Inverse folding.
């Protein structure tokens, strides 16, 4: 769990007491959630395979709920990385490694990067690890033409949610990175070996063409959905960014992490991660307790939700206006002079 030190409002510990009540995982609920989701994912795979003999368009249509179930499995994987899904570290790691193969994501290296994200989210002086590349208005205005082109390319929805999602999950996660330690590198190799074994086994069972026609749309769609959730959890307005000297853990969680209020079916597929303000306040709360924590405590009564339709407005947010403390579009600063 992210440490709760003096920098993070030790003068007011009431919120710490509140979230602590929800920090313990429920073994029965965890095993039930894991089992049900693995069964649903397997069943979705079976239906997609059977539908290939009728029409690939039916198969493609079925890939949407299958991808949604894979996102739910990724939320379990994510909880395991925080040590919040089971009481046992060994069990968390074992399940996390297994789901990492299904989601094409090495467990140890991703968890390390995500831990840094929790330590630095909303901190303008510590951007760059496990977050969405976000420049301030002044930084953008003083950038070279080439840097501006690259930044605009990166922030374009097609790049971020299309090309980026495919690249990260299908290609990028297959390689070790310079920043990884030995455990992280071994995790990449183990995930790749597990993926290879899964691909070969399924290809021998149903044929390589059928395997690709089923698995590829699932992982691409799940990647797009996952990227969108991660993006909208911090790239909204009003949100919270601050320099290190004024950075505050509670404000980052409650103001810089969205309460993404989704329709019930989408809340199901997203594994309650829309209650992201609760998750950042305490990463030790398992996903199935996030909604209850929010609804049972008056501390969160005034948290303004980001609704499903309103969330699409965030696609226009590109820069952090440090002077006015808000996210802005490129259009808003086009006439500014450096």
């Amino acid at each position: 769990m992210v440490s709760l030190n003096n920098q993070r409002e030790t003068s007011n510990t009431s919120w710490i007491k509140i979230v602590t009540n929800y920090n313990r995982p429920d073994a029965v609920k965890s095993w039930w959630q894991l089992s049900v989701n693995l069964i649903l994912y397997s069943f979705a795979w079976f239906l997609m395979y059977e539908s290939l003999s009728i029409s690939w368009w039916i198969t493609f249509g079925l890939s949407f709920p299958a991808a949604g179930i894979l996102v739910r499995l990724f939320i379990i994987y994510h909880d395991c990385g925080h040590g919040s899904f089971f009481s046992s570290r060994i069990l968390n790691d074992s399940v996390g490694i297994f789901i990492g193969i299904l989601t094409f994501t090495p467990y140890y290296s991703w968890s390390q990067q995500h831990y840094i994200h929790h330590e630095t989210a909303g901190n303008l002086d510590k951007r760059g690890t496990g977050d969405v590349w976000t420049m301030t208005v002044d930084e953008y205005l003083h950038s070279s033409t080439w840097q501006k082109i690259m930044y605009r390319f990166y922030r374009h929805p097609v790049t971020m949610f299309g090309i980026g999602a495919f690249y990260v999950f299908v290609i990028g996660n297959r390689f070790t990175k310079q920043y990884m330690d030995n455990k992280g590198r071994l995790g990449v190799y183990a995930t790749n070996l597990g993926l290879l074994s899964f691909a070969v086994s399924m290809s021998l069972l149903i044929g390589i063409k059928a395997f690709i026609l089923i698995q590829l749309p699932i992982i691409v769609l799940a990647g797009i959905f996952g990227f969108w959730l991660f993006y909208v959890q911090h790239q909204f307005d009003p949100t919270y960014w601050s320099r290190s000297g004024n950075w505050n853990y509670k404000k980052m969680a409650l103001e810089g992490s969205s309460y993404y209020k989704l329709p019930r079916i989408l809340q199901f597929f997203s594994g309650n991660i829309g209650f992201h303000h609760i998750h950042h306040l305490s990463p030790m709360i398992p996903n199935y307790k996030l909604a209850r924590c929010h609804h049972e405590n008056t501390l969160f009564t005034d948290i303004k939700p980001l609704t499903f339709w309103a969330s699409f407005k965030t696609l226009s947010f590109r820069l952090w206006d440090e002077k006015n403390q808000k996210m802005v579009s490129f259009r808003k600063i086009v006439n500014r002079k450096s």
Q: What stands out?
A: The two ends are 42 Å apart (CA to CA). The longest strand covers residues 319-321.
